[in-house]
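Board notes (copied after class):
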Amino acid sequence: MRVAIVHDYLVQFGGAERVVAALHELYPDAPIYTSLYDPTRLPDNFRRMDIRTSWLQNIPLASRWFKALFLFYPLAFERFDLGEYDVIISSSSAYAKGVKKRPDQLHLCYCHTPMRFVWRYDDYVAREGLPELVKQILPFFLEPLKTWDLQTSARVDQFIANSATVAERIRGIYGRDSVIINPPVESDLFRPGSVDGDYFLVVSRLAAYKRLDVAIDACRAADVPLRVIGEGPARAALEKRAGPNTVFLGRLGDREVAAQLAGCRALLFPGEEDFGITPLEAMACGRPVIAYKAGGARETVVEGESGLFFTPQTAAALTAVLHQFRFRQFAKARVRQQAQRFSKPLFLERIAGLIREKYEEKFGQERRR
């Protein structure tokens, strides 16, 4: 079985790129086709993969301004020649699912979310903090992308949703059913530690839409220590907002993040994500999560067992839960048990099983004809 993996772009490292790395573990000989690749922004293991980029890679500074190229990605992905492969696995939140294939090829799309900037435009512009002029003209450019996105959904034989939230979007937008397979957590790397710290922790890209202001304001009001891991455009504003008990640690490596998670009192997760892998990494370290009750957190956090929820999405609501947290006890082993329901071995087993099933359905029928 000849397999190709396709991903939108490899210019940043997050949950979607962890999924790509896991898929490559499952099919180590599979090349990875992507529009852009910046090895300086990804872990070293990507340098050992066969990564094949599009013609966009030749544009100077393309990886830095990759969002500005949004009109060109459909052309880039449709120009990939994947004719030699039996199975195409796309990891897509926008464009990768649009690769062309023959009827005798099998295409499974691991969908992180349908195009957010097309289908959830108001949410997207709020997240990105775009200038007013851009917000006024952007919808005219997005209309052709919306048409392309709908048309190319028919090229996918099987959608895989990363969460129930995304499965609902796939059904509502594309009219397609999907199999839900949650992203994997590295439970071997993220493990309980022996030192119990007295700080709360945030691990996130420092962007306005992540709502880290809620966590910072709440920790200042509750007078509890907060450590913030991550970088991003909102850092300066968040530092000005923070109280004396908040420390910004910047970007850390996975092992350093794991050590911080293992020592914290709890992870604070104040934003809404399609799924969100960081809460599971905290739980794998035996640490509870205090999360805004929305999005993927509702699928991973068990109230009272592996964490607590707060709502509405305000500092006052989170402050109240921080006060309640003082009187709650969470057993590390039980919290970690919840994370292990999302372990990488289980993810790989479910992905491999689904691909075998769909492969046999498609090619077994052809052999019997």
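Comment from the instructor: The longest strand covers residues 87-92. Residues 344-368 form the longest helix (25 residues).
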